[in-house]
Every structure is written in C-alpha cells, then in structure tokens.
C-alpha cells in the first residue's frame, strides 16, 4: 500500500506538469488544460509541449518532453493514441512518474486494433515504471493544489472525494454538488483504467487526510481480486457512497462501449455492497443528495421527522413522500399540542405535523410567530430526530409580498437551526420558477442557508430518500462497530 500512496502523490501533488499536445487554439483541450492550471493557481512548473509552437499562453513551449530542462513529475497528454507508445518512451528517459491520457477511441470501441494498442500502451508504461490514468478520461481535480480540468469548478477545496469512470458524471457531480455547497478534496476521472484502477484510488482515498467522504461512480471492476476487501476497508474508515452503472441489461451493454468494462451481475454487486457497508445510490441526483446529507447534517440516529411546509394538499403530499421514502411523520405530542392551543387558539391548521405554512399576507406576522414557536418546540422535543422545512410559499402572492414572506420563513429556519442541536434540512424549489425575480430570490436565500450550514434539497421526496439512506447507514454502521 505504501507504494501506491507514493505513486499517487506524484499525481495529486506534482512539482511540475507537462501538457503534451498543448495548443494555441482555445477550442482544443490542450489549450484548456494549460489555461486552467494557470487560472487555478498551480504553483509548480507548467510546461506546454508542442513542436509547432514556441509559446502558449505566455509560457515557453517545447518540441518534445526531452527538451525540457527541469524535471517533470506528471504529464497530461492530449495527443492521438498512435503517438502514445513513443511518448511513454520519451517520458521514461525524462523519469516522468505518471501520465494522464485524455485520448479516447481505444479499447472502449471494441475494435481489435484499438484494444491491442491500449494493451501496448499499458505494457510500455509498466515496463518503464510509469503510472497511467485513463485512457479516455479527464484526469484530476485537486483544488488545494490548483489542479483542475474545468475552469468552472470551485477553487475552494473540501472533504468529499469523487472517483468516476465517466467524465460526464464527473462534471455533473461537481457542478450539481457545488451549487449546493459541496466542496471536494480530490476528484478523479479515470476512464478505461488500463493501469491505475478503482482499487488503487479507493485505497488512496481511504487513507487521504483531506478526504472524509468517498463517492464512486463505477461501471466495471478491473481488479476483482482485491476490490471487495479494499471497498470494505474504505467503508469501515469513511462513509462511502457508490453509484453502479450497467445494472440493467441495456446499461450493461452500454458500459462496454463507454469504458471497456464488464458490468457484472447486479445481485452479486448488491450483496458485495451490503457486506462492505457502503451506501448505494440509484442516480447521480441521489448520489449528490446523499453527499449533501453526509456533509451538512449532524449524525442522524432516527427517522422521526417534524415537517413544516405548504398547506392543504401540499402538507398531505409532504407526509406521503416522507413516509414513502423511509421516514416517519408522527403526530405532534400532546404536550406540544396543548401549548400551541393555549398560545394560538385560532391557528387550528398549524397544530399538526406537517405544520401548515399556508397563509395570506395579512396573517403572515401572526402566523410566522406561531410557526417559529411550534418549530422551536419540535426542535427541543425528544420525540423527533430531525426537522425538514419546505420553503414553498403561496404563488398567489405578488412579488413584494412573496419575497417578504419567503425571506421571513428562511430567516426563521436559520434562527431555529442556530439555536437547536437537532439536524435540520431545507427544501427549496427553483427549477419550477419561471419568473426571474422569483428564482433569483430563491438562489439568494439558498446561499444564505448553505452559509448557515444547512443541506438544501430540490424536493421533499429527494430529501426524505437521501436522509433515510444515511439513517440506515448510520444505524447499520453502529451495529457493525
């Protein structure tokens, strides 16, 4: 294990990076890799390599790797696959430690010639003691070191790691998670895994001090011998979330043409994950929801939820969605009911669970006062394990009235969350808001909630499903230890 940790240190913390296939064309990936390294503030040496250019983005460009005067730890290659065997020989002479191969159209095509070429590339790297990421991948995002493959990724680092065979899912998880407050320690797009594979990266992340949560999108296992043990070891050390691609027949067929992997049996996979103690996600959206839950909610120990949200049919739907997704919505305890009836005898709809947020502008002040007190009682009561607050406000209200009410509800939730030790989740719907003023207000208030440390979900059903999965994991993990 010590060797793989040392090998990957040159990838995640290189002192110098050469971009082979660097370009002066802003539309080429070879240009973007150089540009992003500079934008993200990579402090090591950056060496563009292109025999047709003397300078790229203000940096001296070199005809080939061997012409670079300084040492090179890590190479990012965007050149055609046919040139890779020669590049590996040149990198060996330069004592390069690792190469990321952006290049695709190899074994994933299923063509014999391409499969043989990928095998030749892997053999050449092994012979010369050079580690490979890919081919057919985007590479590494390590914000703490200023390494990225997208200019739009957050520059701040965090403690969530994501390992993905799919480049598309890599972008999706970082983008979707980023707007909901997730920040990442290390993200790896590893493609066909002709050398470094899921076992190597999971083992590294399990022992990585920057990483507290591990998440993985995997289509097929390369190292079937060591994978079960390494996965179990990682899950024992840190919460580990896995999304498996190719679980259906159609998905399995698609996997082989995407990353040249064998998908394997769903039943065997499910049994493996149960035994290892990992959390399984069914979709990218659910994976992000689970990561948000693990990152923002204090340890959840039960499923009993107090809910505040839309009135009438909305309250019914919220209760159904919570219980359909594994949570329980118990009635308000008699002592809370008695206290609320004493103080607010005319607020009949309020005195139940879910608590009714359906109000008119005229009654907003009194209602918010009653709601705040009701939520405070629930937050202190031992009969509830957590709170879910749905910020939906009646659409019949005009712009100024709606925004005032919405901001008041969010401020109230934040106040309750600061004063209570009970976990609290917030639901904010933005995608179904066609009015610009409305979704801008939602984005602003969402950021307030994130800054206050609350997890944000787009629907009550997704909140309930993710929270339920994490509760199940916590309870199972407690019995396992």
From TrEMBL:
InterPro entries in the cross-refs: Acyl-CoA_Synth/Transferase, CoA-bd, NAD(P)-bd_dom_sf, Succ_CoA_lig_flav_dom, Succinyl-CoA_synth-like
Reactions catalysed: acetate + ATP + CoA = acetyl-CoA + ADP + phosphate
Ranges where the CoA-binding domain occurs: 11-106
A Pfam family per the record: CoA_binding_2
EC number: 6.2.1.13
Molecular function (Gene Ontology), one example: ATP binding
ATP-binding among keywords: yes
Enzyme class: ligase
Domain of life: Archaea
Keywords (A to Z) from UniProt: ATP-binding, Ligase, Nucleotide-binding
Protein name according to UniProt: acetate--CoA ligase (ADP-forming)
Protein's organism: Candidatus Methanolliviera hydrocarbonicum
Lineage: Archaea, Methanobacteriati, Methanobacteriota, Candidatus Methanoliparia, Candidatus Methanoliparales
